[in-house]
Amino acid sequence: MKTNNVKEIEDLIKIISKLPGLGPKSARRIVLKLINNRDELIKPLTNTLARIYKNVLRCMTCGNLKSNTTECSCAGKNYDQICVVENIADMWVIENTGIYKGQYHILGGNLSSVDSKKGDQLLLSSLITRVKKNSVKEVILATSATVEGQTTAHYIEDSLKNEKVKISKLAQGLPVGGEIEFLDDGTLFSAFKNRGPVASSD
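Above: the chain sequence. Below: its structure as tokens.
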């Protein structure tokens, strides 16, 4: 379906259709909504996106999003717990349950045996630094129950084996192959409440 061959519209549809959960049909509906409400939607959306592009970036200490005009919430704080997740969406899901109130560490993905370069982009070394610097007592591994997620968890466990820190992982209720982002609150609540220590590989 063409939109009268208006290039700008077609380009916008292509961009929006790349967003998670959206295909060409949904993208077209969104674009039409924007065009029909350009003063109420397009102008503020354009301004907001421009500010986000300019001012919002990833904290290279904890992996969360931060404004470049202020310090990240992880700075200047002493804490004894860190929950390690793969991405920001996972953190938001956990926060919504209200089960955990401590600090987070967002890796930015997981270790993959297929893509060796991907590991270089993960905030693994900064996690170890945070544990040492803040005398963290517990690291909660909330990586997904996929092969990659568990590989990442084992790598973190091995990296922290010489530190005096309790390492626990989410427990029952977390299905094999499940990704944190798509779990319901009840399942995630159960997995957090019943987390246990990571079994030693020795």
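The CA atoms of residues 42 and 173 lie 43 Å apart.
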